[in-house]
Amino acid sequence: MGKLKKDYLHLKIDNYLVNYKSMDGAGYTTPKSKMLMRQKLLEASRGYCMYCFIRIKVDTKTFSNLEHSIEKSKNGTKLAMCRMNISITCPVCNTKYKKKYESLRIKSIVNTIEYKDYLAANCNYDSCTSMCPAYMRLRDRYYRGEYGHIILQPYDSVVKECKVDSIGGNPLNIEYDLIDGLFYPDSSIQYTNEERKFIVDHINYFHLNDVGERTNEIYRFCKDMINDYSSRNMKDKYDNYIVPLFIEKTKELTDDKLVMLCEFIYKCGLITGRI
Ligand SMILES: [Zn+2]
Ligand SMILES: [Zn+2]
């Protein structure tokens, strides 16, 4: 394949960002606020699971759960009710994958200074507009637990990145490699071993690369694009967030160039036995 100016074969997946200032009434305290919360988080996630990237909005229905980022313990009213601690996920991520080690994670935070400080801090539940310092310190404590290697979602527009200073301080980003169709730590960042392990643990935690569970939607798109140039205008047709990200990243390419790229990715899929 000819030389392309940009690296189109590695897709960086940014954290989901939520603009909490425009979320009047959305939260987790009443059925109505939960309904609004679901709507707002779905807008932020563009209709995909915030952890495994699978489509959760189908036609007029959503197959989604409001998920507590830091798991609420039995007396953790604030963690249960503060809207800064809520993400939107598919039912599998919420009820299966994120349940694993849940009690160990709760145990790793409940007796800490960060937790006590968080309980003492003021919270406005459905009206919180940014992650308060006490909540951020609690997230940091959570990340440092043995089973806390989860890049919690979402983020607000002020706190854009997941970083853990004690293990390196780099933004913990996932990328999708279009050559082998697998998820990896961001190849553009020089991670410490601990950071790399954190991201790999996250990827494994949500089974992103597991046989039978990993996404093949990119191959479906490539095949469609090879057959019909207008496929690039139908980014919402595919069941994984990877595809719209890829379509957006390649938007400056001509149809012919994008088809060449799709042919290459499709061939890679054949060679690696993915399709
Ligand atoms: Zn999911
Ligand atoms: Zn709050």
Bound molecules: zinc ion
Largest sheet: 3 strands, antiparallel
Radius of gyration: 20 Å
Can you tell me the number of structural domains?
Answer: 2
Low-confidence stretches: none
N- to C-terminal distance: 21 Å
Structural class: alpha+beta
Q: How many β-strand runs?
A: 9
Side by side, the strands of the main sheet go 1-8-9
Estimate the helix proportion, in percent: 25-40%
Give the count of helical stretches: 10
Secondary-structure element series: EEHEEEHEHHHHEEEHHHH
Name the overall outline.
Answer: globular
Overall mean confidence score, pLDDT: 95
Percent of sequence in beta strands = 5-15%
Structure notes:
It is a single chain. The chain is an alpha+beta fold and 275 residues long. It folds into 2 domains: 14-173, no CATH class; 217-271, no CATH class. It is 38% helix and 10% strand. The protein contains 10 helices and 9 strands. The chain has helices at residues 31-45, 77-81, 91-97, 102-110, 113-120, 133-144, 193-205, 217-227, 242-249, 255-271; strands at residues 10-13, 17-18, 57-58, 61-62, 65-68, 86-89, 155-156, 174-177, 182-185. A 3-stranded antiparallel beta sheet has the order 1-8-9. Strand 8 and strand 9 (182-185) form a beta hairpin. The protein is globular. The model has no long low-confidence stretch (mean pLDDT 95). The structure holds zinc ion (2 copies). The site of one zinc ion has 5 residues, from loops. One zinc ion is lined by residues 49, 51-52, 54, 89-90, 92-93.
